Amino acid sequence: MHRALVAVEETYAAGRRQASELLGAAHVALAIEPAVPVEYVSVADPDTLTELDLVDPARGALVSLAARLGRTRLIDNLVLAPVAPSPRHPDQPGSTSRPTADPAA
User: Fold this and answer.
1) What per-residue confidence (pLDDT) applies to 104?
2) Of 92, 76, 89, 88, which is closest to residue 42 (Cα–Cα)?
3) Which strand ranges, in their side-by-side order, compose the sheet holding 72-80?
4) Is residue 23 helix, strand or coil?
5) Per-residue CA distances from 34 to 27, 50, 94 (Å)
């Protein structure tokens, strides 16, 4: 189960935000242990727990999963932390930086 959460985290860190891609990464990792039936894997809003189709990088997400090992139900979760927007270079379109006048000129 931990491998599945790490796979989701790596997929998210690689810039993937579609829940279907994140869930796919988890299911690939979980398929390695077919003797452990998976009950669910979820990508949800960290505050409302509403299932997401797309993770807003400014909010992050909660990934949770449950599986059975015999009669024992195993659960685990991982918070995908919000990602700060990358700083813009002053020459890039959309930048709000303005050149300043040199007072010595």
Assistant:
1) 53
2) 76
3) 38-44, 61-69, 72-80
4) helix
5) 11, 28, 49
Q: List CB contacts of 6: < 8 A, sequence separation 6 or more.
A: 29
pTM, full prediction: 0.76
Nearest by Cα to 80 from 51, 44, 26: 44
Instruction: Dig out the tokens for 33 from the structure.
Output: 């242990």
- What amino acid is encoded at 35 in this protein? A
Q: Which residue has the tokens 């790596």?
A: 10
With cut-offs at 50, 70 and 90, classify the pLDDT of residue 100: very low
- Enter the tokens of residue 50: 């509403």
With bands split at pLDDT 50, 70 and 90, how would you rate the model's confidence at 67? very high
